[in-house]
Design goal:
The complex is a heterodimer of chains A (about 400) and B (about 210). Chain A is built from 14 helices and 13 strands. Chain A has helices at about 5-15, 15-50, 65-70, 85-90, 120, 145-150, 200-205, 210-215, 245-250, 260-305, 305-315, 320-360, 370-395, 400-405, and strands at about 55-60, 80, 95-105, 110-115, 125-130, 140, 155, 160, 180-185, 195-200, 230, 235-240, 255-260. In chain A, helix 10 packs parallel to helix 13 (about 370-395). Chain A is elongated, with a radius of gyration of 31 Å. In chain B, about 35% of the residues lie in helices and about 25% in strands. In chain B, strands 1, 2, 3, 5 and 6 form a 5-stranded antiparallel β-sheet that branches. Chain B has 6 helices and 10 strands. By secondary structure, chain B is α/β, with parallel strands linked by helices. Chain B has a single domain, classed as Rossmann fold (3-Layer(aba) Sandwich), CATH 3.40.50.300. In chain B, helix 3 packs parallel to helix 5. The chains are: A alpha+beta (about 400), B alpha/beta (about 210). Chains A and B meet through helix 1, helix 11, helix 12 and helix 14 of A and helix 1, helix 2 and helix 3 of B.
Amino acid sequence: MRLLKISWSNIKHKPLNTLLSIVLLAFGIGIISMMLLLKAQISEKFDRNIKDIDFVLAAKGSPLQSMLANIYHVDVPTGNIKVSEAKRIIKNPMVAEAIPLAYGDNYEKYRIVGTNEKYPNHYGCTVAEGNLFAAPFEVTIGSSVARETGLKLGSTFTSVHGYDNAAEDTDAHHHQLFTVVGIFARSNSVIDNLILTPVETTWMVHEHPEETATGDSTSVDSTHVEPEREMTAYLIKKRNKGAFGMLSKQTEDTTMQLANVAVENSRLMNNFGLGLSTITAIAVVIMVISFISIFISLFNSMRERRYELALMRTMGGTRATLFALIIQEGLLLVSIGYAVGLLLSRTGLLVLSKFMEESFHYGLDNLAITTQELALLGLTLFVGLLASVIPAWQALKIDISKTLTNA
Amino acid sequence: MIDVRGLTFQYPSGPSFTFPDFSCASKEHVLVLGQSGKGKTTLLHLLAGMLRPTAGNILIQNTDITKLSNRELDKFRGREIGIIFQTAHFVDSINVIDNLMLSPFLSGKKTPLEDAMAVLERLSVAHKAKEKPASLSVGEQQRCAIARAVFHKPSLIFADEPTSALDDKNADQVIDMLEEQAQQTGATLIIVTHDKRLKDRFQKQITL
């Protein structure tokens, strides 16, 4: 016989009251914990994908879109830029590294990105099977792509024009065959969800689309000149401070613009954070209600059990024992609520992650308990304590003689 | 065993009682008789340390319980006194045997589970040990309440109007049980009642 057993029995004895308290608390905790996880994971994931990329050089347009498209690959790019123009900027000594990106096609919604070895190297991506792409139409695919599409070493496929739309009409299909020559190891970066190929592949796929479409080989224009090579974007690492202003100035009279990743990202996180804050505020309200519910439930149960408590006193229970008993019931209730809440948030996150993986190829996978959640536990226990102190105090003041006489 | 001297009690803005001095020896069985409103229950609560007297001394086994601190009094009560109330009450959320074992747990007086089962057996309610108190009949509840009061072998057993709601046959049975259990454990038994049927059964009587 332990005090905990009595507390537990008391909690089980009123299943509906207990259920109400626990469900309310679990929802509050669950939502808050999910927001914390979501925020932590998304910023972690974003940070991992930004990883030392300072600027995105792309066509003029929304710099936020430019970042979303070229770093996270969740938005469409702002357009194309001319290699000859871009060269003037990426050759600038202030640029430490420039990673080229040229894309416009997808395979089963996974983007096919023309680049060079700098791109996977930047994220510390290693090839798990096969090799890195070398020749045009050779591709090395991300681990998620391999898992979801079933592409293997030696597999061939044709691409669809567009970024993440699986176009229905066959006209959008290109006819050239891509061959999988390698599969990357999982890096938890954007590379996991990309199909990488040499830049030349992208150029070759999109060269003279009208000729390949009509198949008319006799009307080759003899005055044809080498077409102006185009790129979707360059990811740029700067060499020194103040580079943004200088480089940005150079883009002024061009069709290009330089997006400052740090600025755009903090803007993104702020907007995103505002949404999370609203949901968190609702969750806080739910939690407050749940604590009131726990307080009322404990208070009522204490009143109903006055006789029992007085009886326990006659059996040798001290005031301190009864006080501890009621406090313990409160703490037990909030602990269960907390545990169920964490379970809920994990389940919610898994569902959300599945949805995000399907829609954005953006999964969330870290389900470990965060330090913020430990702080949340501390807060939960503290408020649980507050909610049970008043009922416990009432229990201390029970007049056993009077209670037992009037029962 | 018990020695009561100059005991008075005044309810805050209520009646006041002055009790006669009395004493009783160890293992003695005593009947305290009195009409309603004479302070029978008050006396019992005073003797059990559930109320503090306005004046006077109560010596139980040479301990003046009026001098004990709250905590000491709670512990003393738990160890030395078993109380049977007019109506049987239990902690509803736990089963009968756990209700019994609550007593040694709370008082800290080690009493094995077997003792509790043995007493339930003697009172023919052992088969109800694992059931919740609320599912028992009133008679079974009273037996279990008696078992709870005696199984940890207190030196004093108090019973408050144990027969008031019972017919003659059952009243006799309950008194038999109480006397038997008190004898078995060598406890002093004090029954407080207005039930005149019990008059002939006890030699030592105190009338309020």
